[in-house]
Automatic annotation (TrEMBL):
GO molecular function (one): chloride channel activity
Biased composition (Polar residues): 1-12
Residue numbers spanned by region Disordered: 1-30
Lineage: Eukaryota, Metazoa, Chordata, Craniata, Vertebrata
Segments passing through the bilayer: 106-127, 155-176, 206-224, 267-290, 302-324, 349-366, 378-397, 409-429, 481-503, 509-530, 537-561
The UniProt record lists the keyword Kinase: no
Species in which this protein is naturally found: Cynoglossus semilaevis
InterPro entries listed in its UniProt record: CBS_dom (IPR000644), CBS_dom_sf (IPR046342), CIC-7 (IPR002249), Cl-channel/antiporter (IPR051280), Cl-channel_core (IPR014743), ClC (IPR001807)
Keywords: CBS domain, Chloride, Ion transport, Membrane, Repeat, Transmembrane, Transmembrane helix, Transport
Protein name from the UniProt record: Chloride channel protein
Cell compartments where the protein resides: Membrane
Gene Ontology CC, one term: lysosomal membrane
Residue ranges of domain CBS in the record: 726-784
Length: 790
């Protein structure tokens, strides 16, 4: 990136340092030696772009994109504001009121599970019906033209149907709600991490997500419907827990106490877990997913409530699917994907197979290995490296060129048509014919050029929904596929999935990963056919492939074990996933984390970077800080909030000269200005209603902008007393506190602002999420991720 030479800061402070590498001060103009060590500041992520993907002529544009994304994110406020209004409300509440609140939390979690299960049931039934109609029409057309000639018409029909269906799904995503694209798991991970992602839990997002994923799966793309269920469950939780819909402008006057970030994020955790449970029939795995991937605050009661929501979700899906299949009470469909049961003696594993399973895990991890493609010693990971570097290039290409909605729709249609064409071509040229036995479970057996009583094995993988293809790879009898069929399918589906991931459609990467892994895993088992059962190795390959992509360990182990219904596979699956994560993390992060970085989200990991104890709060904090007096002039508050160059969201409240006495948020000041809570007006109006916490909750979460609040010139001269509304006991740290201590306090408590004070309790700085997120460990030790301010 030769044309960007000026060092610029990720935070809101102006950069006062000189050229990079000259030993110039990093933060706040301090020129002290950092305990004899120099912080290696570099353009880490942007350097990767320049080195691996970006031509010099376009890197400025891409840098601008990343900064535009970065500065639109704000933090959630997980800390209770213990001001006078909060204390007065708490004193008014009786013991029975608190018990009713606890019961309400259980009721909300039950509703979350029930509605998430209903949505999953709706998606499953609609996909099955529409896909059945599509495949039946294409199957009859192929059989007709196989006899009389003219199969090109069948190809055109298949491609046209796929393109038309995918076009509908892409249009509603690209034009109406772009945040609904993809699986939504990275966005939910960020939300649970404490980042407020715009529009991620809106009702409109849910509707577009559900309709979009139906179109994507029915349209034959290399995607799955399980990943988006996690996002859907989170949106359901965010809406139900608030007792109203801001999109529909309907307030049901229930659950008003839960209208704050603290409660809402707990319920979103339950919704994400319910989504996992509905997708895989794994309620325990859902709980562990929320614990492992998101929630920074956890307690026993929250665990029980999330588990309750997960159980209700899988039971609801199971119950209604049993009715749909005309078997009421037959609860044998716990999730959207059913792996089938691995309970026969032939599918048992032996001690000598464990090293083979671990080796398969090492293969699977290379799915996320692309930064080191140029190193010859890593060529053994070429398959995974190829997937990631192609997808990474595609993502950069889409950011740069395919950013208009019309182009995104055209790309999705192109991928759908190419997928149908490649699938048809692979089936057409395949001569893998298998006998059609009476106990055959194939949904749409395609004969094509096979003899009577036989079907085309390649069509079993392509001419089907991905979930059924995975199940057939797991459980079809040995000999159902020949090695050439599996090898060609793995290679072809690999590139199709690579191209599809990142389109402007609602889709998940779970099922494509499982399908690719099951294919090469079964191929691995066939090569060991003397003493191996291919289906068993297909399961291990699927787990290795998925684990190599998403880097989930504990939760994914339990999800796969629950989906298979056989706990004896827990050990090999655990070893496979641990191998995939440990070896893969040595090179690069998981796919979701990569895309989180591509969006420049200030994501906080579990721990502060190693070797960062020598950095102090004084060097990390943002300064100078905009402070307000305890009794402040209204005009000053309006001007401060209207200042677009800072756009601060938290303001320390001080007494002269700068001694801290509290902290107040932008949202609180907006509500105070809206209700004209001025000292002079309070004195002149004897009947003036006192503001309550309910007024703040009613404005949550879409607080009006300062530009929408009219303040007259006379009102600007009034005074506002912040004593009653500010948080009088905000968390503070001394300026010499080390970065790991600051990080641990900030993340564990879910803070939005952390005030830095000196020995006399004077405010000298403020630590926010963006100040902490820019430090990480790199190849050269501790590095500071630097992005330009826009």
């Amino acid at each position: 990136m030769a044309n960007i030479t000026k060092k610029v800061s990720w935070s809101s402070r102006p950069d006062e340092s000189g050229a990079i590498g000259e030993g110039t001060p990093l933060l706040n103009g301090s020129e002290q030696q950092r305990h004899g060590r120099q912080l290696i500041s570099m353009y880490v992520f942007i350097s990767y772009l320049a080195k691996y993907a970006l031509p010099d002529s376009d890197d400025v544009c891409l840098l601008f994109f990343f900064n535009c994304n970065y500065f639109k994110f704000q933090s959630l406020d997980y800390d209770n504001i213990e001001n006078q209004l909060f204390l007065e409300e708490e004193r008014r509440m009786s013991h029975m009121s608190f018990r009713c609140l606890e019961i309400s939390r259980w009721v909300v979690c039950g509703l979350i599970g029930f509605l998430t299960g209903l949505i999953a049931c709706f998606i499953d039934i609609v996909v099955e019906q529409l896909a059945g109609i599509k495949y039946q029409v294409v199957k009859e057309n192929i059989e007709k033209f196989t006899e009389v000639g003219g199969l090109s018409i069948s190809l055109l029909l298949w491609a046209a149907l796929n393109s038309a269906i995918v076009m509908l799904g892409a249009i509603i995503v690209a034009f109406f709600e772009p945040i609904a694209a993809g699986s939504g798991i990275p966005q939910i991970k960020c939300y649970l991490n404490g980042v407020k992602i715009p529009r991620v839990v809106r009702l409109k997002t849910l509707v577009v997500k559900v309709c979009g994923v139906i179109c994507s799966v029915v349209g034959g793309l290399a995607v799955g419907k399980e990943g988006p269920m996690i996002h859907s469950g989170a949106v359901v939780a965010a809406g139900v827990s608030q007792g109203r819909s801001t999109s529909l402008k309907r307030d049901f006057k229930i659950f008003e106490y839960f209208r704050r970030d603290t409660e809402k994020r707990d319920f979103v955790s339950a919704g994400a877990a319910a989504g996992v449970s509905a997708a895989f029939g794994a309620p325990v795995g859902g709980v562990l997913f929320s614990l492992e991937e998101g929630a920074s605050f956890w307690n026993q009661m929250l665990t029980w409530r999330i588990f309750f929501a997960s159980m209700i979700s899988t039971f609801t899906l199971n119950f209604f699917l049993s009715i749909y299949h005309n078997n009421p009470g037959d609860l044998s469909n716990p999730g959207l994907i059913n792996f089938g049961r691995f309970q026969t003696d032939s599918e048992a594993y032996y001690l000598y197979e464990i090293p083979l399973f671990i080796a398969m895990g090492a293969i699977g991890k290379f799915k996320n290995f692309f930064f080191f493609l140029h190193t010859k010693s890593y060529l053994r990971g070429l398959l995974g490296a190829l997937f990631n570097i192609l997808n990474y290039w595609l993502t950069i290409f889409r950011i740069r060129y395919v950013h208009r909605p019309c182009l995104q729709v055209m790309e999705a249609m192109l991928v759908a048509a190419v997928t149908a064409t490649v699938s048809f071509t692979m089936i057409y040229f395949s001569n893998d014919c298998q006998p059609l036995s009476p106990d055959n479970t194939e949904e749409y057996p395609l004969q094509l050029f096979c003899a009577d009583g036989e079907y085309n094995a390649m069509a079993t993988a392509f001419f089907n929904t991905p979930e059924r293809s995975v199940r057939s790879l797991f459980h079809n009898q040995p000999g159902s596929y020949n090695p050439l069929t599996l090898g060609l399918f793995t290679l072809t589906y690999f590139f199709l999935a690579c191209w599809t991931y990142g389109l402007a459609v609602s889709a998940g990467v779970f099922i494509p990963s499982l399908l690719i892994g099951a294919a090469w895993g079964r191929l691995f088992g066939i090569l060991l056919a003397i003493w191996a059962v291919p289906g068993k190795y297909a399961l291990i390959g699927a787990a290795a492939q998925l684990g190599g992509i998403v880097r989930m360990t504990l939760s994914l182990t339990v999800i796969v074990v629950e989906a298979t219904g056989n706990v004896t596979y827990g050990l090999p699956i655990m070893l496979v996933l641990m191998t995939a994560k440990i070896v893969g993390d040595y090179f690069v992060e998981g796919l979701y984390d990569i895309h989180i970085k591509l969006q420049s989200v200030p994501f906080l990991h579990w721990e502060a970077p190693a070797t960062s104890h020598w950095l102090t709060a004084r060097e990390v904090m943002s300064s100078p800080v905009t402070c307000l007096n305890r009794i402040e002039k209204v005009g000053t508050i309006v001007d401060t909030l209207s200042n677009t160059s800072t756009n601060h969201n938290g303001f320390p409240v001080v007494v002269q000269p700068a001694r801290l006495c509290g902290l107040i948020l932008r949202s609180q000041l907006i509500v105070l200005l809206k209700h004209k809570v001025f000292v002079e007006l309070a004195r002149s109006r004897l009947t003036h209603r006192k503001l309550q916490l309910k007024d703040f909750r009613d404005a949550y979460p879409r607080f009006p902008p300062i530009q929408s609040i009219h303040v007259s010139q006379d009102e600007r001269e009034c005074m506002m007393d912040l004593t009653e509304f500010m948080n009088p006991t905000p968390y503070t740290v001394p300026q010499e506190t080390s970065l790991p201590r600051v990080f641990k306090l900030f993340r564990a408590l879910g803070l939005r602002h952390l005030v830095v004070v000196d020995d006399e309790n004077n405010v000298i700085g403020l630590v926010t999420r963006k100040d902490l997120a820019r430090y990480h460990m790199g190849k050269h030790g501790l590095e500071e991720l630097q992005l330009a301010q826009t």
